[in-house]
Amino acid sequence: MIHRKAERTPDPVANAGRVRIGQLYVKVVEAIGLPSKDVIANSITSDPFVKLTLTGRWSHGQELQATKLTKRKSRTLNPRWHETFVFNVCAPGAELLLEVFNAGQLTQQATKLGQVTVPLVDLMDQRRHNKWLDLQLPPTLHRHGLNNDARAGRIHVLLHYKFARVAEFLSHFMAEERYTAPWPPFKAAILYNNFWILLDDLWPYLEVIWSISPTLNWDHPSRSSFVLLAILWMCLYITWVPVLLHVAMIGMTIKNLCVIAGSSTSTLASSSSMDGSNHHDEPPRVYSLPQGFHHITDKMAQVTTDAETKMTLQRVQNNMAWWSGVIKAIELMFSWEDFFYTLQILIALIVSCILHVLIPNQYLLMVLVVYLFTMWTVPFGLITRMIYGLKQGLSSLLHQQRLRAHHEKTMESSRSAAAAAAAASTGGPFMDTPGSSSRSRRGLSMSRNEVVSRNEHRFGAAATALSRRFVEEMNNGSSSAR
Fold first, then answer.
1. C-alpha–C-alpha distance, residues 153 and 127, integer Å
2. In angstroms, what CA-CA distances link 477 with 93, 350, 465?
3. Burial class (CB within 10 angstroms; exposed 0-12, middle 13-18, buried 19+) of 297
4. CA 116, CA 99: separation in Å to the nearest integer?
5. 63-67, 164-168, 197-201, 315-319: least confidently modelled range
6. Which among 320, 375, 57, 374 is positioned nearest to 192, based on CA atoms?
7. CB-facing half-sphere around the CA of 306: CA atoms within 13 A
8. What tens digit of pLDDT does each residue of 382-404 get?
9. 34, 39, 353, 416: which is deepest, by most CB within 10 A?
10. Residues 6+ away with beta carbon under 8 Å from 411
C-alpha cells in the first residue's frame, strides 16, 4: 500500500551530489488488459496510474531511488497516458521498476495491480526501444475467477538510455555511498526498553566494580595488602603481564565450557528422574536504582518534546542499542553460544600466549606497530576497489559490444529479408532500385506495425468484453437470488 500524494521523490543525483552516468528517457504510452480491483455500481474497473522507480543498490545493500508517477486514469482497464519522464542515472547496474497501481475510489490507499522490472544493462546499446512488457500479477490480488493466473495485462513503454561510455566505465571506480545504519525513530517505549536491556547487560560488570571498591578503600586490610603486592610484582615483572592476561582469558573460556557442560548434564539428569520435584527458575534480578528514577521514566512517555530534543533522545536511544550490541558481541566470544567461533578464539589465545612466552614483547610490539602502520597507510580498500572497478568496467564494455553486434546482425537479416521480398514482388533482383527497395522496407515495417497494433487492440477488446460478461453474470446471479 502506498499513498498517492507521497510518491514523488527528488532526484538522488541532486541530493547526493553524485556525477551522473547518463539519462534514461521513458515514455509510458498505454496498458491493456489490467486486472480489475473496484466493484462499484455493478461495474468492474480500475483507476490505474504507473509508479516508475529507478533503483540501484550498493554492495552494502542500501538502495538509491528516484521515483516518478503518471496521472491517474479513471474507470478503465486499458488506460492511455502518453507521458514522458527523464531519470538521471548515477549508479551502474541500475534497474527501472514499473508498477501499476489502482488509485481506489473509496479510500486514499493505492493497491498494486502488477509490476515489471527492466534492467538498464539490456538498454546499453543506446537505441530507442519500443517494448510491450508483461506485467506480473501480485499474489495478494485475487480477481475472483477472472483469469486467475500470474499475468496482469501488458504495458507499452518507449525506452532510450543515453550515456557516455567513458563516464559509464569510470562509474565502476567511484566510491559508493556511505552506509547509514537504519536506526528507528525516537519512541519513549524503545528508549525505555533499550535502557533496561543495556542495564541488564552492564549489571554483572557493575557488580564487579562495586565489589572492588571496598578493597581500594581498605575496608579489608589483608585483601588490600595482597592486591598492592600483586600490583608491585607486575610493575617489576611487566613482561609477564600479557601472559597472565592470556592465561586469565583462557581459564575464563574453559570455565564457561565446563559450566555449560555441567548444566546440560544436570538438565538431562533432572529430566530423566521421576521424583516429581519441581524446578524453580532463578529469581528476577532486582536493581537498586536512584530514588525517583521510575517516576522520571514514567513521565517521559507523556512529555511532548520539540524536534531538537527528539533528535537528542533518538541519539541516546540508538547509542544504548549500539553499546548493548557491543557488549553482546564481546560476550559471544567467550560464551560458547557459537561453539566453533569460541573455539577459534580459544586457539588464537593459546597461540598468542605461547608467542608471548617464546618471543620478547618488544619484537611482538614491533610487529604490531608495523601491521597497524601498513593497514593505515596502504590503501588496501582503494586497491581492491580499483581491481573490482576494472573488472566490472571491462565486462560492461564487452557487453555493449555484444549488444551492438547483435543489433547489427538483426538489422542485416531484416534488410536481407526486405530485399528478398522486394525482389520477389518486382520480378527479380535486377529490376530492384534503391527507391523501390526503401519503399518496400517502409511498407514491410508499416505492415508489421499494423499487425502488432491490431493484435493489441483485439487483446484489449477481449479484456473489456470479458469484464462486461462478468458484470452481466453478477447481475443475473443477484436477480435470481431475489
1. 26
2. 52, 81, 18
3. middle
4. 7
5. 63-67
6. 320
7. 1
8. 788 788 888 888 888 888 888 88
9. 34
10. none
Query: Model confidence over 1-30: pLDDT tens digits?
Result: 454 444 444 444 444 445 578 889 999 999
Q: Are 103 and 48 in contact (CB under 8 A)?
A: yes
Sort residue 25 into left (φ over 0), alpha (ψ -120 to 50) or beta.
Answer: beta
CA-to-CA distance for 394 and 396, rounded, in angstroms? 5
Is-contact 408 426, C-beta < 8 A?
A: no
- pLDDT attached to residue 30: 92
Query: Contact at 8 Å (CB) between 79 and 48?
Result: yes
Rounded Cα distance between 65 and 440, Å, is: 45
Give me 377's grid cell. Answer: 597507510
Q: Angle at which helices 293-300 and 188-216 pack, to 10 degrees?
A: 160
**pLDDT, position 295:** 58
Region 85-100 average pLDDT: 86
φ, ψ of residue 117 to 5 degrees: the values are: -115, 135
Angle between helices 221-236 and 188-216 (to 10 degrees): 90
Chain position carrying cell 481506489: 104
Handedness of CA 184, 186, 189, 190 (dihedral sign): positive
Residue 443, pLDDT score:
54
* Cβ neighbours for 287, distance < 8 A, ≥ 6 positions apart: 199, 203
Q: Put residue 331 in one of left, alpha, beta given phi > 0 → left and psi -120 to 50 → alpha.
A: alpha
What's the residue count for the chain?
482
In whole angstroms, give the CA distance from residue 41 to residue 308: 51
The CA distance from 263 to 472, in Å, is 72
The DSSP call for residue 428 is: S
Main-chain phi, psi angles of 313, to 5 degrees: -65, -30
Burial class (CB in 10 A: 0-12, 13-18, 19+), 262: exposed
137, 37 Cβ separation under 8 angstroms = no
Question: Is the pTM above the cut of 0.85?
Answer: no
Strand, coil or helix: what is 204?
Answer: helix
Closest CA to 243 of 351, 395, 116, 163: 351
Task: List phi, psi (to 5°) of 46.
Answer: -140, 160
Cell of 201: 547487560
CA–CA distance from 61 to each of 52, 55, 97, 121, 305 (Å)? 21, 12, 17, 19, 34
**What is the set of domains in the chain, with CATH numbers?**
22-172 (2.60.40.150), 188-264+294-376 (no CATH)
